[in-house]
Amino acid sequence: MTAARPVMPPxxxxxxxDVWEPLLAIADAVGWAQEARSAAVELIGAARDAEPSLxxxxxxxxxxxxxxxxxxxxxxxxxxxxxxxxxxKPVGRSQGEADQ
Length: 100
Prior knowledge:
Layout lengths: L13 H17 L2 H17 L4 H13 L6 H4 L6 H6 L12
Helix pairs in contact: 1-2
């Protein structure tokens, strides 16, 4: 079982393949190969279509905040980015828009 390398269905790659590989290997061993692959494709597709979690949105905002193209070097030179300034800097939405 440790040497099993099941064939991944289309669309199951990278991190998803790492997660599904042992599950598909077990499914192959017990005769549920088709059902497991169908479930993998369905669940991965549903996850792609889902609204990003608050944590993912936060990471995206932090990435945008520190993206070199979004910072104005002229205005930030005399005022380094501190946690307080970062908290007040609008990211990904218009100022005054309520958090959801």
